Amino acid sequence: MIRFPGFGARVIFSKHKTWLLVASTVLVASLLYIPRLPHTVQMGDTGEMVANAYRLFVPHPPGYPLFTWLTHFATHAIPVGTVFWRAAFLSQLFSLGTLAVLVFHLRRTPIVAFAFAMTLAVSELFWKFSELPDVFAMNAFFAALLFILYTDP
């Protein structure tokens, strides 16, 4: 159903169209991210985080236990790619989840939602932490979840 009450008209989506918007956003972003996932150790703490997660050791404080357990599971459950690529793929899934949550929250204005998500997806900082296996993508996902739980009616 579409209403046109004048300037600032909002498109009211059905459930199916909302999920189609979320899925198309995630698909476009994943087509950008997947070919560029790194196969070898990159900068910063990524090598330490992946090696410690792979063997279930404790990385430097604060240790990031949830990230360590999830990365350990991902590096052992995904049968393709290098260990580093599998951990980077998990970070990409968290980033795609962040985009999906934000698009779902902005679903009342689908063009704005898609534009906002794609702008965030290709921003330099978000892209960098989407492909590096570190805690930043997971933290962004949980922050987006808390945001939507707090603000969504």
Features:
disordered N terminus, 153 residues, 0% strand
Write a brief structural summary.
By secondary structure, the chain is mainly α. The protein has 7 helices and no strands.
Describe this structure in words.
With 153 residues, this protein is mainly α. Helices cover 67% and strands 0% of the residues. The protein has 7 helices and no strands. α3 crosses α4, α4 runs antiparallel to α5 and α4 packs parallel to α7. The longest helix is centred in the middle third of the chain and has 23 residues. The chain is globular, with a radius of gyration of 17 Å.
How would the blueprint of this fold be written?
Blueprint: H1 15-33, H2 46-55, H3 65-77, H4 83-105, H5 110-122, H6 124-131, H7 135-151
Helix pairs in contact: 1-4, 1-5, 2-3, 3-4, 4-5, 4-6, 4-7
Radius of gyration of CA atoms, rounded to a whole number = 17 Å
Helix content: 55-70%
Q: In what range is the share of β-strand residues?
A: under 5%
> What best-fitting shape do the alpha-carbon axes yield?
globular
- Terminus-to-terminus distance: 20 Å
Number of helices: 7
Structural class: mainly alpha
Mean pLDDT: 81
How many DSSP E strands? 0
Order of helices and strands: HHHHHHH
How would a textbook summarize the main sheet? none
Q: In terms of per-residue confidence, which ranges show pLDDT below 50 for 5 or more consecutive residues?
A: 1-9
